Amino acid sequence: MPNLLAKGRLARWSGVAGVSLVTLTTMAGTVLAAAAEHAPNAAHGGEHASGGLPQLNPANFPTQIFWLALTFGVLYYLMSKKALPRVAEVLEARQERISRDLAKAAQLKEEAEAVLAQVEQSLAGARAEALTLIGQTSAEIESNTQSRQAALTADLAARLTAAEASIASAKDQAIANIRTTSADIARDIASRLAGVEVDAAQAEAAVAAVIEERR
């Protein structure tokens, strides 16, 4: 495709150069013809005509036309065979380089889009994995918290039960000690004041009755 474009441009430029050369040749002939028409008037001028420009002398016109045609022919040959093909090669190389650059840019764009898609997919996977891990961690933390709270509640209940049992036992022991001591004191008082010996069982029963009434 670039080669065809370069050849088309070369043919177009060759045509333009040929037309330009033909136009210049025609213009040169017209100028020379006009000069030939004015040449007789210049010749009547005597010494002034002999001292005019050589290129306006009709005797020199055939030689000038020959060299003009030869010069334009050589220029046309050089332009069509040397200069314009070289320009076409440069344009073709430039077009090929541009085409390669565009193809490389398209390839790099496709690779970048593929990498971007992979990165987005990896980010989506990492995001989903992070959310799953967060959910599992939250569930584990909640489960551990509930387990620890249940264990703490059970431990506190057990300790409270043990403390209540210990308090009740201490209370019963204290009441028993008070009952015995109170019975001994009551027997001693009855013996000293009334001279009556009271049975220990009766004294304890009486003290127990009083204690029950005070509760």
TrEMBL record:
It is found in: Cell membrane; Endomembrane system. It is a single-pass membrane protein. One of its GO terms (cellular component) is proton-transporting ATP synthase complex. Its main location: membrane. The keyword Cell wall biogenesis/degradation does not apply. CDD domains: ATP-synt_Fo_b. Pfam families: ATP-synt_B. The chain crosses the membrane at residues 59-78. InterPro entries: ATP_synth_b/b'su_bac/chlpt, ATP_synthase_B_chain. It comes from the Bacteria. Residues 91-129 form a coiled coil. F-type ATPases have 2 components, F(1) - the catalytic core - and F(0) - the membrane proton channel. F(1) has five subunits: alpha(3), beta(3), gamma(1), delta(1), epsilon(1). F(0) has three main subunits: a(1), b(2) and c(10-14). The alpha and beta chains form an alternating ring which encloses part of the gamma chain. F(1) is attached to F(0) by a central stalk formed by the gamma and epsilon chains, while a peripheral stalk is formed by the delta and b chains. Belongs to the ATPase B chain family. This is ATP synthase subunit b. It comes from Azospirillum griseum.
